[in-house]
Backbone:
């Protein structure tokens, strides 16, 4: 039986979803790309620099956005997620639910609405490290380049002020949650990951001190478009963070938390060490590790970092992090190479938290998919199925591996819909 | 070659290696089967409130088990400094029941007649505790504490008791310790029969 639909649905607009959508579309397939948040870019957009070449994410995303703009085969829906899926390969009936952006396509991103807004909300792009106006652009690399108005101002005088500030009639405060149906032949789940909740690692006191932060928050501190405009400072008092501890396997490789290696955190922390050392000449960075997993070509980067006399490697998984009497976070444990019991105080402590697949906890995939023990979706669910996965939805992958899995998923999906 | 390597390192005495020791621990020590999961991360020793008192700490002790350093392991003080706070068990990322293993290694050392195991504070304390349990079916704080002190000799016992007198008075005042005859349970005989049976089962299981 010939497939009824040759359209490929890609769920998730991070680096993997974008790549899968573009690859499939450039090969001639019709693609619908759904993204839950107001913009494409996913976790990559939130990085300061990313591997393998330590580029700013602007670079890779810009190229991909251009490819999306030039390709007529891709239909993009932001603030949209899959509610239900029925049917089988070649003929999936998908119901999509959209949440209101309150800004339509007439938006020119002039920013007048943001100036008119008075209330502030926690900034999701900066992991809540700062706030943003209730009418905001998600970030400077947003795609579509369109503002969002938070639902909290709807029906308030502030909302009316925002609406009247727009010269282009782009504000639509009446917009409601909507659903619409799609018929697709194959689905690629590229639902990505979220940082493991550091507060769950109780001995590391993440909730006890603002100076104990996670690796994704460190990326935001180091980024020019972050809450501190790229200054790596103590969140508690804004003083320079000259003495920094980086804690590996915070939640990963731990049967109490994520039993698997999250794969990206070692190189992420090596990169953070380099950020701090670049910013302050007199800085000291201590990396606490079980073993460093700098894979593939990136071993060279590890060697470079290791050669820096301001960066120390301490082979130890800390037992606890406590807030000292002077308010500074103090890392306690045993140096396994010398059996010294240490308690070292720092300006900031960065927990290299791992990647948890969104499909494990936060987001239930509304169709039968094959998952591993940890909630990652296997690349291909069963024979003759049109369900595939890509990126970190598939396993703890770095950016370049995510892109490879996306290309593979695109090819599998094309084969599924073309029979 | 490997067995005698240590002897050739200057400043280190010859060590005896028993290459079957690790397997013996895996198979005979409670929780020992999980010991092979240890990845030497150091969380146990780093979390231990008495980590600085221990000669090796659990992480290093486990590596010594693997290396077959039977004598050094069974002479260690690490096991007897464990207060069973379970921080290591709770935090171990590989699910190794650290405290169980230490406890049973300590018992094994005592059973095998290692002198160190018999003269530690913990061993003295445990002996006094079980004496009180057998005799009264309860812990009588005064008598069992003094029994423990006595293991150091009479003169030392009196010195220790005097040093703790103010604590004892406070305990009496707050009714945490009573004066007069020791409280007993009704069936000390039955209790001792139970304890004897337990010892018998233990011996049978250990094939002694």
Residues:
């Amino acid at each position: 039986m010939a497939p009824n639909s040759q359209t490929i649905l890609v769920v998730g607009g991070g680096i993997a979803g974008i790549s899968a959508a573009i690859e499939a579309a450039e090969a001639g397939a019709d693609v619908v790309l759904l993204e839950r948040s107001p913009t494409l870019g996913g976790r990559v957009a939130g990085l300061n620099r990313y591997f393998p070449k330590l580029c700013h994410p602007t670079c890779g995303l810009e190229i991909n956005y251009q490819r999306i703009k030039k390709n007529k085969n891709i239909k993009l829906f932001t603030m949209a997620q899959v509610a239900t899926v029925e049917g089988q390969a070649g003929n999936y009936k998908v119901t999509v639910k959209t949440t209101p952006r309150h800004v339509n396509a007439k938006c020119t991103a002039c920013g007048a609405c943001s100036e008119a807004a008075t209330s502030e909300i926690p900034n999701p792009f900066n992991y809540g490290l700062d706030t943003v106006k209730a009418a905001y652009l998600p970030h400077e690399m947003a795609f579509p380049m369109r503002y969002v108005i938070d639902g909290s101002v709807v029906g308030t005088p502030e909302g009316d002020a925002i609406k009247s500030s727009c010269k282009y009639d782009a504000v639509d405060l009446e917009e409601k949650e909507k659903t619409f149906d799609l018929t697709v032949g194959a689905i690629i789940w590229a639902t990505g990951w979220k940082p493991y909740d550091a507060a769950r690692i109780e001995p590391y006191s993440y909730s006890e001190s603002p100076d104990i932060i996670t690796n994704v928050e460190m990326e935001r501190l180091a980024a020019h478009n972050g809450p501190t405009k790229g200054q790596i400072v103590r969140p508690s008092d804004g003083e320079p963070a000259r003495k920094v501890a980086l804690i590996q396997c915070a939640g990963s490789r731990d049967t109490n938390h994520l039993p698997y290696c999250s794969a990206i955190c070692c190189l992420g922390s090596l990169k953070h060490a380099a950020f701090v050392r670049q910013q302050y000449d007199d800085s000291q960075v201590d990396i606490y590790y079980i073993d460093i997993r700098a894979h593939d070509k990136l071993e060279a980067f590890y060697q470079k970092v290791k050669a820096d006399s301001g960066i120390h490697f301490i082979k130890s998984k800390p037992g606890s992090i406590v807030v000292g009497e002077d308010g500074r976070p103090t890392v306690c444990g045993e140096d396994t190479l010398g059996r010294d019991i240490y308690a070292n105080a720092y300006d900031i402590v960065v927990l290299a938290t791992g990647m948890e697949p969104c499909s494990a906890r936060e987001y239930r995939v509304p169709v039968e998919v094959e998952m591993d023990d940890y909630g990652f979706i296997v690349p291909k669910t069963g024979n003759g199925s049109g369900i595939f996965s890509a990126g970190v939805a598939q396993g703890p992958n770095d950016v370049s591996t995510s892109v490879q899995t996306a290309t593979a998923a695109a090819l599998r999906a094309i084969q599924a819909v073309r029979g | 070659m490997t067995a005698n390597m240590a002897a050739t390192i200057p400043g280190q005495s010859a060590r005896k290696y028993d290459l079957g020791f690790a397997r013996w621990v895996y198979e005979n020590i409670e929780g020992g089967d999980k010991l092979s999961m240890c990845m030497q991360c150091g969380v146990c020793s780093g979390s231990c409130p008495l980590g600085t008192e221990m000669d090796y700490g659990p992480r290093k002790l486990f590596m010594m088990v693997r290396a077959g350093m039977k004598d050094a392991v069974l002479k260690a003080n690490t096991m007897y400094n464990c207060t069973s706070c379970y921080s290591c068990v709770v935090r171990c990322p590989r699910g190794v029941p650290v405290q169980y293993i230490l406890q049973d290694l300590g018992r094994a050392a005592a059973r095998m007649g290692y002198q160190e195991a018999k003269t530690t504070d913990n061993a003295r304390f445990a002996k006094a505790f079980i004496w009180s349990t057998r005799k009264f079916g309860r812990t009588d704080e005064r008598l069992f504490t003094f029994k423990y002190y006595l293991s150091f000799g009479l003169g030392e016992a009196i010195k220790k008791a005097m040093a703790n007198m103010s604590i004892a008075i406070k305990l009496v005042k707050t009714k945490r310790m009573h004066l007069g005859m020791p409280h007993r349970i009704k069936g000390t005989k039955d209790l001792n029969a139970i304890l004897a049976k337990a010892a018998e089962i233990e011996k049978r299981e250990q094939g002694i």
In short: The domain at 14-119 of chain B is CATH 1.10.1060.10 (Fumarate Reductase Iron-sulfur Protein; Chain B, domain 2). The longest helix of chain B spans residues 188-205. Chain B touches chain A at residues 39-48, 51-52, 56-57, 59-60, 87, 90-91, 93-95 (CB under 8 Å). Residues 50 and 82 of chain B are 7 Å apart (CA to CA).
